Amino acid sequence: MPENNTSLSIIIPAYNEQHHLKACLDAIAVQTDRPDEVIVVDNNSNDATAEIARSYKFVRLLRESRQGVVFARDCGFNAAKSSLLGRIDADTVLPPDWVERVKGFYADQQHSTYALTGGCFFYNVRCPRLARWWQGQIAFRANRLLMGHYILFGSNMAMPQHLWKSVKDKVCHIPDVHEDLDLAIHVHEFGYEITYLENLRVGVKMRRVRSNQAELWSNMMWWPRTLRKHGKRTWPLGLLGALILYIGAPAVIVAELLARLVGRPPLDE
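^ thats the sequence. predicted structure below, dont judge the formating
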């Protein structure tokens, strides 16, 4: 492992991700600056996730038996050997220069106490620019107003190893909270900055909106619940934001149905 202050490990929690993991790892394989380590944490998958991960020579496969993305994340973060930790999801598709840009950000010593996060686009919805803007306004700008700082987006984040070591014993391991939002709250409470680079975008898949409305509702409620459990008095505004998202979500489904009516092929689901 290179011994410098910008070596980078990418950690990917994965549970039954056989339909997404290959595209994720293929995007890592063609980075202009290859990461120093790629860790896939198999969180009790019962499909071909582990087999796919093993087929890539640059992947280090770990297993986490405790079910939940927070445990898989912690397993990968704690095992990583680089000075920088990058966290993405198994359906994340990185742009070719993502590693190069993250390392470039941390090459500036002034950023040694910063956590970094970026935006996204949804590669499986109609009107991706509108969906990207909508997600950015709610996930980043609205949350900043509610909390006084940016969130860390689980599909697109990085931080120095020493920052993680400072907060890892404080992060919450409880159900029904957003683990990336929880991590951001603890990072901020320790006095670290969170930088949001809107144009550091990755491709991600919009899943719950196009599948199970009950699951979508439950997931939306994790937002105000996370704020409330951390004593944020603005949690009712988080509830309002979650309701707005939930009400607006069917527009994605309607757009897909209209597209099919006029003969356009379905997007990958």
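The first strand starts at residue 8 and ends at 14.
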